[in-house]
Specification:
Chain A has 16 helices and 16 strands. By secondary structure, chain A is α+β, with helices and mostly antiparallel strands. In chain A, a hairpin with a 5-residue loop joins strand 3 and strand 4 (76-79). Chains A and B meet through helix 1, strand 1, strand 2, strand 3 and helix 4 of A and helix 1, strand 1, strand 2, strand 3 and helix 4 of B.
């Protein structure tokens, strides 16, 4: 025997045990159903890409976090750190074959060598959907509708979709003659919530050379509050004379009207001119989604419009719009809100393996129930019944079927409701239809 | 603009475009459903593990194929090359918390730096299920039933599950006094189909020091053919006097009887003493599954019993039994057999965006159909109708809804069956219930 190796996961990584994994599978299935209901198709891309595909896309901080190495053919490769860069590469490579509009979803793991002290994991799942190849406002509207339907389908009622349009700020900077400095202004503005008004103003003066009047105008825009229509009215004069700014305001108005027409309650959508999301990437609509009961966890579904997706890989114009559901963040929120049903077994019915030489009877019974669409676990060993029922209890089965020597001789079986403890004796003749009926009655009683 | 980067995937890796990915998702869903119906729960483990966890488990060849590197904390890490080694590590780490029997499935990507000239990919999905913590024959039987149900649920009728038990050969070697040389005998025997009887005999004589009589006995065993019961009868004298061999034969007999009792047609299960599967790993039952129409592609679902799963990581005994569905091989087979339905859109209904300023009407219609469980894609731009219908045709929608200025003014909509080309005009009043009925009639007509 060689020396023992300590069984452990890498720092920053984790195993998913059945409970956590079942919740994740359920959430993914829900997302997939919503994406598909809008005509988004699944794709997948390799976990490993040429390093040159990945670097320089997400900024210096992201570059540092990429898991990178030379493979056995001395190629520099990296593990993907998001699903957007692979989408850009994928679109540049395949769009001629696929045609536009191209609507895809992609649910897969990504890896980042993050600082684990912040409670972050180095491997996590992303769950993205995007529409590529159209600049139409209808695609922006649909993105908002998908986000709304996703949250509803997962089971949330109280959430707020915050929307903005990058063109609005661009328009103001245009009017103020600060268009060339937009990056510096955005970097400073992004810190508003963290460092406050005064320090942001200092930074804008320093890095963008903004005058106090200019700083004032920018902050006045970012701090606009109130009803959606009220904000829209206030925005109009602020971007007057800038075509981009006017288009931004018009698109926001259009988006608000359309999502309401499609049935989204108006209190769930809020115009928020302060959200910016990243610095260089987005060029139009921006979306963030907050749970009203847990605003502190941040946005659980974010995205927006970008018009230069694949420009590093192709000279074809590939505008797009989409968003990403934060699976892990959502799961944590659902746990905190008590929304994760405690289910520990994917099968609902437990069959005790009672009499050692009657295995065939138990196998037949299990097969009949499965053929009727009911999940059944047969205990693998003819152990003491008490031990088996303890296992059944711990695993969270809803029904136990128990047939000892006497029952089998009489052609019957006990059907036990594990929640109430009630038990009834049912005949096994006639293709187990009486057992099936009794099981279904118990399962239906607690739905 | 920085210089352009060529959009390409790494050698040995591939993208999944929507058609391929939809087929893969469907297959995975089917497998998941079958696993769950037997009470298997999902788990997941990290793609990256400490290198010491991975090496030395799958033999020298596998070790060479592991993607390995030092992470930014100078830890040596590797990408998992299968799901069995992570299961062993996982079980050693968590089994005290989870208890036994522990039944899990795991569907995830693995990576191997294989020689791509053999048409192999360096990233592929595995789809495993295992029962840990019991030596009971009932768990072996269940493994065979799961494999059978899997193939049936995927849509196969003509396939053969080949079973063997490692104890049978061990028993013979025991009787022949070759028990100590079993590894050398197995290595030679494994080549029988490839290099033929004579060369295998030479090798056994050379590496295991087997006499011609011993070689003869071993080959006679491996070449046993005929009906299952006939083989069982012939095996008995060959293992006489060896407790292990007799147990192997008894377990095979028990397995055959039980799967038949559970409803598996007997022609789908065949005792095949020649299958060995790997060298050191399996200790009992062995399973392989072949498609009758495509035997050349090899086994599509293989596995068996192993009794020393986690011995490298823990001194707790963790016997197990399970199998792995070969997703990629199965998908290739299904394509060859014409079993992959040509579906190019996950949504079935297409709504043309006909009149530019009537977007709200189209959005409302789409929302109503989705609320009724029907997938709907709305074209994102008010382009020429011909162009939109060409897109709808290419994507494989089944129904198109077309409402121009005249229809909308009259409160109606055209419902077009895209297969037959037939079109009918339906009223939009009353919550779109007439449209819903017309759409459902078309969808039902082609199921």
């Amino acid at each position: 025997m060689s020396k023992r190796i300590e069984p452990r996961t890498l720092k920053g990584f984790r195993d998913y045990l059945p409970d956590a994994m079942m919740a994740r599978e359920r959430l993914i299935n829900t997302a997939r159903g919503v994406y598909r209901s809008y005509g988004f198709s699944p794709i997948d891309t390799p976990a490993l890409e040429y390093l040159e595909i990945l670097t320089g896309k997400g900024g210096e901080e992201t570059d540092k976090q990429i898991y990178r190495f030379q493979d056995s053919g001395d190629r520099w490769v990296g593990l993907r750190f998001d699903l957007t860069v692979p989408l850009a590469r994928f679109a540049a490579q395949h769009i001629a074959e696929l045609g536009t509009p191209f609507k895809r979803y992609h649910i897969a793991s990504v890896w980042r060598g993050e600082n684990t002290q912040r409670g972050r994991y180095r491997e996590f799942m992303q769950c993205d959907f995007d529409t590529i190849g159209t600049r139409s406002p209808a695609a922006d509207i649909e993105t908002a509708l998908v986000i709304h339907d996703l949250l509803r389908a997962i089971g949330f009622e109280r959430f707020t979709l915050r929307i903005n349009n990058r063109l609005v700020l661009n328009g103001l900077l245009d009017r103020l003659g600060l268009a060339e400095k937009s990056k510096a202004v955005l970097i400073a503005l992004d810190k508003l919530a963290k460092i406050g008004r005064e320090k942001v103003a200092d930074e804008m003066a320093r890095t963008a050379g903004a005058t106090p009047e200019q700083v004032n105008e920018v902050l006045r825009l970012a701090e606009l509050a109130g009803e959606n229509q009220e904000i829209l009215r206030k925005l109009e004069p602020m971007v007057a004379g800038s075509a981009a700014g006017q288009e931004g305001v018009a698109r926001l108005a259009e988006l608000l009207a359309a999502v309401e027409a499609a049935g989204v309650p108006c209190e769930r959508v809020r115009l928020d001119v302060s959200i910016a999301r990243g610095l260089d990437y987005y060029t139009g609509a921006i979306f963030e989604t907050f749970l009203d009961e847990l605003p502190g966890i941040g946005s659980v579904c974010s995205g927006g419009r970008y018009d230069r997706l694949a420009s590093l890989y192709t000279n074809q114009e590939l505008p797009g719009v989409g968003a990403s559901l934060g699976l892990d963040r959502l799961l944590a929120a659902m746990e905190e809100l008590g929304m994760l049903a405690k289910v520990t077994t994917p099968a609902e019915v437990f069959i005790a393996y009672f009499v050692a030489d009657r295995l065939h009877d138990y196998l037949r019974l299990a097969a009949h129930l499965r053929a009727a669409g009911i999940g059944v676990e047969l205990y693998p060993e003819p152990k003491r019944l008490g031990q088996q029922l303890k296992y059944a209890d711990r695993r969270g089965f809803r029904v136990a079927l128990i047939a000892g020597e006497d029952e089998l001789a009489a052609g019957t079986c006990q059907v036990k409701d594990l929640a109430s403890g009630n038990s009834q004796t049912v005949g096994l003749a006639g293709g187990d239809s009486a057992v099936l009926a009794a099981v279904n009655a118990i399962l239906a009683s607690r739905l």
